[in-house]
Amino acid sequence: MLTFLGFLFVILAITITFVQPFIRKKHDDLIKNGSKIPPYIGFIAMWDLKLRSALFGFGLFMLLLAESVIFAKEGHQYYILSPTGARSTIMSPGIKFIVPFSKIQEWEKFIDIKCVALDKKGNYKQDVTGIEGIIPNGINVRFIDKVDANVYASVRFEMPSDDIAFIKLVETYRQPSNLINNTLLPTVSEQLKNVTFMYSAEDYVSGSATDYRMTIEDALKNGGFVVKKVEVRDTIYNEVGVDSVLKKKRGIKEINKFIRNEKIFVNGIPKRIPHEINVNKIITAQVIIDDVDLNKAFEDKLKQQRDISAEKIIEIQKVETARAAQQRIVAEGERDKAAERVKQEKMQVNTLIAIETRVKEEESNRQLAEIAVKTAELEARALLIKEKAEADANRLKVNAGLTPQERAQIEKETRIGVAHELSKMQVPTNMIIGGNGGNSTESLLQIKLLDDITKKQK
């Protein structure tokens, strides 16, 4: 807009300068003749040299301003080559000032590469608007077990944010299309083929898909892998049957040998080869593996294996069900046997407890009887000691000088007391009399003691 206005003002100033003498002369003639002056003649006639110079200068200013100001758009980077040969870049959006009449080259900050499938008419099956690099029908790769596949990948690259690297990139490739067609597309295709040859199709469908995709992303971001060729043996076993399951043994049907690439590690880190993406400091912002379309023959083989595996699983499940039923019957028998064993053991325990209780009761009775005998014996001894003490006391009193009257009175009272006690005592039928002419009182006491012990034992 500024450029258009600048050119308009400059051209207007130059035009007025050329037609000014003629218009001015006609204007003066009309004044002399007293004729009416048309507006446009009056307007042009009033533009003297100062006004024409000012108009011309303003037009030049507008042209210079238009060449000195650039509006940088979001998501774009700009390469600036000034008339003096100086190079610079614009990385951020907004209004920027540059040297007038510089050469400006605009680049997308992000470049998208995408594999797109084609229909039978050769048209893309999805919208490709905004995609700079398109790979029709994916990238054809081969796994180490000689299975072909078409890999559909979506990769987004980001231009270098470093000024020097971006300037070198622009000067090397000159146009974004050269960078896409000569570097990005071939490098993506090469890395996918190299990584795919590190895996087998069997591994991919058996659970290595995630690892496969992560390896592709790693190779595009950090450089290709230095690999070595390794011989791999793929052992194929015989069909799984009921007998093999029961015997837990499978025979080998065949062994396939093939060569595959394996990473070389140095101190635990994969050894790499930088590719053009890394060398030009292009950032791999995003890698998505949309699909891996395996060879149709291999997919048919997988379907057959899946059906066979399903039948094998059903047969194995039947075997396991029968085995479980057998184990259940055995377990139930063992359970019944254990229950009967516990019942018999409980009965034995009850009998043993009853016997042990009776034994303990008899033992307690015996101990009580022994204690009773000892108690009676102690009581008898205590009585004897008491009687003997009283007799000794009386003897000492007599020896101390009692009168014959007092001594007679004491003996009388003693005999009356003894007789009174003897009258109360029940004399047993059995009598023990000492051979050496013992005391009759002592003999009676002994007889009573024995009689009491005999009654307690009964």
Short description:
The protein has 458 residues and is of the alpha+beta class. Helices cover 58% and strands 20% of the residues. The chain contains 11 helices and 16 strands.
SSE order and pairing:
Layout: H1 2-33, H2 39-45, H3 49-68, E1 69-72, E2 76-81, E3 87-90, E4 94-97, E5 103-108, E6 110-116, E7 133-136, E8 139-142, E9 148-158, H4 163-173, H5 176-196, H6 201-222, E10 224-225, E11 227-237, H7 242-247, E12 252-263, E13 265-266, E14 269-270, E15 272-273, H8 276-279, E16 283-294, H9 296-399, H10 404-424, H11 440-457
Parallel strand pairs: 6-7
Antiparallel strand pairs: 1-4, 2-3, 2-5, 6-9, 8-9, 9-16, 10-15, 11-12, 13-14
Transmembrane segments: 6-23, 54-72
Protein name: Band 7 domain-containing protein
Keywords: Membrane, Transmembrane, Transmembrane helix
Q: What do you see in this structure?
A:
It comes from Flavobacterium jumunjinense. This is Band 7 domain-containing protein. Keywords: Membrane, Transmembrane, Transmembrane helix. The chain crosses the membrane at residues 6-23, 54-72. The protein has 458 residues and is of the alpha+beta class. The protein folds into three domains: 2-107, no CATH class; 109-294, Tetrahydropterin Synthase, Chain A, CATH 3.30.479.30; 366-457. The chain has helices at residues 2-33, 39-45, 49-68, 163-173, 176-196, 201-222, 242-247, 276-279, 296-399, 404-424, 440-457, and strands at residues 69-72, 76-81, 87-90, 94-97, 103-108, 110-116, 133-136, 139-142, 148-158, 224-225, 227-237, 252-263, 265-266, 269-270, 272-273, 283-294. Strand 8 (139-142) and strand 9 form a beta hairpin. Helix 1 (2-33) runs antiparallel to helix 3. It is elongated, with a radius of gyration of 64 Å. The termini are far apart.
